[in-house]
Inverse folding.
């Protein structure tokens, strides 16, 4: 669970991931299969409610075929 001052960072990252996923017309389950990550994990990351491992974000960036720095850069 994410709380405190970092919440906005997690929400912003989740929004970027969801936007990239929907632009590629991928469902949560499809992206999860590509990334070898549980679909519930991706869902919680997109909502900004999961305190995730950095390795998970690397997998998602690769699965979405976007550079990691694009997900991590502010706005």
């Amino acid at each position: 669970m994410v709380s405190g001052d970092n919440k906005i960072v997690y929400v912003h990252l989740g929004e970027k991931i969801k936007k990239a996923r929907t632009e590629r017309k991928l469902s949560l389950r499809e992206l999860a299969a590509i990334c070898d990550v549980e679909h519930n994990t991706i869902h919680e990351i997109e909502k900004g409610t999961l305190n995730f491992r950095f390795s998970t974000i690397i997998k998602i960036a690769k699965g979405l075929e976007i550079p990691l720095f694009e997900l991590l850069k502010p706005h």
